[in-house]
Amino acid sequence: MKKNSNIANILIYIILITGAVLCAFPFYWMLRTAVVGAGSIFSPDIQILPPEFLLDNFKNALTAQPFGTYFINTTIVTVLNIIGVLLTSSLCAYGFSRLDWPGRDKVFGVMMTALMLPLAVLMIPHFIGWSYLGLTDTFAPITIPAYFGGGLFNIFLLRQFFLGIPKEMDEAAFVDGANHWKIYWNIILPLSKQSLIVVGLFTFLNNWNDYLAPMIYLSSEKKFTLMLGLNQFMGGYNAQWNLMMAAVTVVVIPSLVLYLFAQKYFIEGIAMTGVKG
What we know:
The protein is mostly helical. It has 14 helices and no strands.
């Protein structure tokens, strides 16, 4: 039995290691492409190790386009979205979990059906609306919506977590003279750090790596985000793949570092957010 158990464990480790290698290989190939010349990328001789190390690719990539401006723009958009999403989604989740009002659960169920709407259905109406307001080619269309609910998925995630907090704490706070705002700010939010970190992490990744929304609404190069900046390496007849991969490597570093430091809270937040009715 012990021998069979050891064999099973070895097979499991082999499968896990194989899966990890397959998942990490695209990231490695990105790094490899970032340090080779353009001619080596399309060489008929496939070489796993880079035949050369051209670290100047990083300098050339970051100076070929105004990536400093793109970085500032992306940071502004991401920070504004994180603030808006955390504030408004938590307020909505509080209303759907801690307040008792007629038809609360039915309204929440109907609202969740909007998750089935594909983004492609909403793009044209949204663009027309922002165009009528004269706010295209500004950060308004990609930041203001975060302050009106913060996203259905985020509301759902926080609501499920809030439902797990005993309501006796609310009742004790009411006895001490607290109102709903104090309960939300001083009790619910401090107890929900893990779930808030998860929502903040999702929001950061979604906005830092967002290409579609900036492409739709932004037309001035001085307002481009990092994703639009990376697209500048794509020409009409060719693409500077080595410079693009060098720039991509730099762009993904903040996401990678953030996830490495926040993965503990991310896993805890997902695990503690049960599906409660």
